[in-house]
Amino acid sequence: MKLSICTISFRHHLQSIDQLAQFAKTQGFQGIELWGVHAKNLADDLHYGADWLSSYGLETSMLSDYLPLEAPVSVMMAETERLSSLARRWGTNKIRTFVGKKGSSDTSTKEREELIFRLRMLCDYLESKGQYLLVETHPNTLTDNLPSTMQLLEETNHPSLRVNFDVLHIWESGMDPIVAMKQLRPYISHFHFKNIASRAQLGVFAPNNVYAAAGSREGMVPLFEGAVDYGDFLAEVDSNMEVDASLEWFGANVKSVLAKDVQEVKKSLQLVQL
Q1: What pLDDT does residue 240 have?
Q2: What is the DSSP letter of 129?
Q3: Nearest to 35 by CA among 262, 246, 260
Q4: Using one digit for the tens of pLDDT, what is the confidence trace for 29-76?
Q5: For a tag on the chain, would you pick the N or C end, based on fewer CB atoms within 10 A?
Q6: How far is Cα 273 from Cα 249, in angstroms, rounded to an integer?
Q7: Which residues form the Xylose isomerase-like TIM barrel domain (predicted)?
Q8: pLDDT > 70: percent of the chain
Q9: What is the pLDDT of residue 239?
Q10: pTM of the full predicted structure?
Q11: Residue 23 pLDDT level (bands cut at 50, 70, 90)
Q12: 57-86 in b/e burial notation, b at 16+ Cβ within 10 A?
């Protein structure tokens, strides 16, 4: 398993991409997950890309964005083409998105059919570029629980559609992450790892809070100090499963927490292999 930092973790910090790459290298990460807006803001500086990142011994594990599936098709495809080009420049074949802006139970059959139709369009395009579309398991989207995610994969039925398995959000849905991982394993191309002190505090990860500079961070805890048991989860990850994982930290003390967590994850993975 290759481990990445997420540049979104530094969204409110005055850190350059050079500083983030140096930090990732120093702490033993293998890559970075590049937030879409960061890739877009670096687009005019041709110095940055896959070759530059490889000079640090790192690779781009994924480009994470929010493709506008509800927008006019021309707008949706233009944005997809832009992200595809940026992903190619940064040397990754994975683009992450969310599916819809409502939970699966609040999405009508007609709305679901339209979203599936749009996903196929995106997957067809990305397949032509040798890339994959990863849908993230996330609340208030069409992949907010395991049954709906499995249904979406079956309905779309496309080899370029994959899953970004967010362990915490699967747990939030009420499903055992280990059980869900085993069912989704053929489709998983990336993991997001984060944790929370208690289920009652999950609201801190709501987009309108977590992306706000003044938002609450109460309940956000290091990976091995929260309600989700990452020791048990990592013990069940197939050591032969070639997949990337990002440590997605939204709280304070970003560097110290990530530095500790990456060592703990590596230690757990080593114990599994013994």
Answers
A1: 62
A2: T
A3: 246
A4: 999 999 999 999 999 999 999 999 999 999 999 999 999 999 999 999
A5: C
A6: 26
A7: 22-267
A8: 98
A9: 63
A10: 0.95
A11: very high
A12: ebbbbbbbbebebeeeeeebbebbeebbeb
Q: Of 13, 47, 138, 192, which is the active-site residue?
A: 138
| Per-residue confidence (pLDDT) for residue 142, from 0 to 100 | 97
Q: Would you give the distance in Å from CA 47 to the centre of its chain?
A: 25
Residue 34 and residue 50: Cα distance in Å, rounded? Answer: 11
**138 has catalytic annotation:** yes
Distance CA 162, CA 243 (A): 12
CA distances to 6, 18, 90 from 47, rounded to whole Å, are 20, 11, 11
Best CA proximity match to 245, nearest among 187, 152, 167, 160: 167
Q: Which residues, 6 or more positions from 89, have their beta carbon under 8 angstroms from its beta carbon?
A: 49, 50
Degrees to nearest 5, angle at CA 69 with 76 and 34: 80
Please tell me whether residue 251 adopts helix, strand or coil conformation.
coil
Encode pLDDT of 167-186 as tens digits: 999 999 999 999 999 999 99
- Measured in Å, how far apart are the chain's first and last C-alpha atoms? 15
- Angle of helix 109-128 relative to helix 73-90, nearest 10 degrees, comes to 40
3-state class of 31 per DSSP?
strand
DSSP state of 225: G
